[in-house]
Amino acid sequence: MDGSITRITLSDGSTRYRARYRDPGGRQHERRFARKVDAQRWLDEATSALVTQTWTAPERGRVTVADWADRWLSSQTGVKPSTLYRYGNLLRTHVLPSWGRHRLVDVTHADVAVWVAGLLTQGSAPGTVRQAHRVFSLLLGLAVRDGRIPRNPAERVPLPRVTRQEPRFLTHDEVERLADAANEDGDVIRLLAYTGLRFGEMAALRVRRIDFLRRRLTIAEAVTEVGGRLEFGTPKTHQRRTVPLPATLAESLARHCAGKQGDDLLMATASGTVLRLRNWRRAVFDPAVRTAGLSDVTPHDLRHTAASLAVASGATVKSVQRMLGHASAAMTLDVYSGLFDDDLTALADRMDAAARAAADARVGAVWARPPAETRGIGKRAGQRGGPRGDRTHNPRIKSPLLCQLS
User: Fold this and answer.
1) Nearest by Cα to 184 from 278, 280, 258
2) pLDDT tens-digit map of 304-331
3) The predicted structure's pLDDT at residue 381
4) Which residues are in the Core-binding (CB) domain (predicted)?
5) What residues contact 243, with CB distance under 8 A and at least 6 apart?
6) Fewest CB atoms less than 10 Å from the CB: which of 33, 81, 153, 326?
7) 401 pLDDT higher than 50
8) Share of the chain above pLDDT 90, in %
9) What is the mean pLDDT of residues 260-287?
10) What is the pLDDT of residue 405?
11) Where is average pLDDT lowest: 279-283, 335-339, 352-356?
């Protein structure tokens, strides 16, 4: 890099040091300093950034975080509408009030760490803090890729730990009590509790995606409420899946299909509209929980219940993962590892039984040998006397006289 430091004298007689260099495009950049050491440090930093290809034009980082957030949010075309809506809420409530007027180039790692700690002090939940930090980090990451800042100052910031709540599992009897208390919506509760569908997947399930012959449900669509609007799209992992349908549900679901076309919704309100989680919980689910004598039960607990009942029926981790639509078996274990403790115990018992059977078979084979085969056991070729276990290194016991006396 072509760079230089020149000493200049101002009209008032004071001295300044002018540092200059040219960027890869040939444009000249310069700054003046009162001390030569400061000018050299600035020039060295620019040189290092050019060599490591982290150099950015200073003026490109002068855009404010608020302006850049609008540009970043409009570029998020690969996310679901519900995710985009949540990004916007996090920006408005947590990110922009603190960072909106800052320039991208002025955001520092230490300031981001202080901001994260401040959100916790103000009472935000750890999960909310992590989500707000993620949104801020994502928009700063785009600024790095666009050449506006050399690095992402939000990376490797200490974040609060999120404690996962223990899932609530219902028994078969509790599921039936809850379904009976829900009256006409009892089949909705049974469908959620015995298949593990997300509420949005259940609300978007259409008649043509039910295979009564093979007892399978094809989950290819989900509906969510975004800002008061219903948005239909793919399931959470963008992957369609097949879910087993218990025979006990087949007859009741067949009644719901009667008189409907293939594209009609399986479950709907009395007026035929889409079930909305918030309204359904307030009008149906919460009153049914109280009538059934239960407490601290949410609609999502029915999904946990499906996993619990599946494992109790002998399902493997992979089977539960496919049924619930998790991205990986590791995610299934993270949430439901406690359900597989009994499975591990049974595995240990089976391995122990196999080991004992092998040991018993070996002992039986030894006792079943004829005397001619067992006579030489323990001897090496050419060895006289007893087996090696009868010998000793004590010279007194090895004495022939002592052997005779004994």
Assistant:
1) 280
2) 999 999 988 888 889 999 999 988 888 8
3) 54
4) 63-144
5) 195, 196, 197, 216, 217, 218, 219, 323
6) 81
7) no
8) 58
9) 95
10) 45
11) 335-339
Residue environment code for 111-146, b if the CB has 16+ CB neighbours within 10 A, otherwise e: bbbebbeebeeeebeeebbbbbbebbeebbbbbbeb
Q: What phi and psi, each to the nearest 5 degrees, are found at residue 358?
A: -65, -40
Helix axes 299-312, 329-336, angle to 10 degrees: 100
Place of tokens 């050019």: 50
What tens digit of pLDDT does each residue of 94-118 get? 999 999 999 999 999 999 999 999 9
For helices 81-90 and 126-145, what crossing angle results, to 10°?
Answer: 100
What is the model's pTM? 0.71
The CA distance from 96 to 108, in Å, is 16
- CB distance 203 to 267 below 8 Å: yes
User: Above 80 in pLDDT, residue 1?
Assistant: no
Q: What are 70's two structure tokens? A: 């609008």
